[in-house]
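Quiz preparation item.
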């Protein structure tokens, strides 16, 4: 599935001043990691945001917001915000700031160690 490059550029601009951001291809789209934790992403033209589970439930009442159900089951603490809900810079920035605030509370991630396959003797 393709994702909106225009939205990706808007997110990059919003997160541009941070040194702890990493971008990874995920879910057929792109995810932006903050401090090693998935924070926001794009699937199609929808913004995916990660929030505290109780905040996510409360925010489901907002227009253009729905549970993230990529696997067919809603994921706790993850929401999709459809394109009409992130039209303005202020709307997008508000969602990104919420997600960054939450992911910043998570414990630091240990760096991944890639294990190389053993060579046969």
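Solution:
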């Amino acid at each position: 599935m393709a994702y909106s490059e225009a939205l990706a550029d808007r997110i990059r601009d919003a997160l541009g001043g941070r040194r702890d951001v990493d971008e990874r291809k995920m879910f057929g789209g792109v995810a932006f990691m903050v401090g090693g934790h998935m924070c926001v992403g794009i699937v199609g033209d929808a913004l995916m945001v990660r929030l505290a589970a109780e905040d996510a439930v409360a925010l489901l009442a907002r227009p253009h917001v729905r549970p993230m159900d990529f696997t067919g089951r809603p994921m706790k603490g993850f929401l999709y915000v459809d394109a009409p809900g992130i039209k303005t810079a202020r709307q997008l920035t508000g969602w990104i700031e919420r997600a960054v605030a939450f992911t910043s509370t998570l414990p630091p991630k240990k760096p991944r160690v890639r294990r190389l396959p053993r060579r046969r003797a």
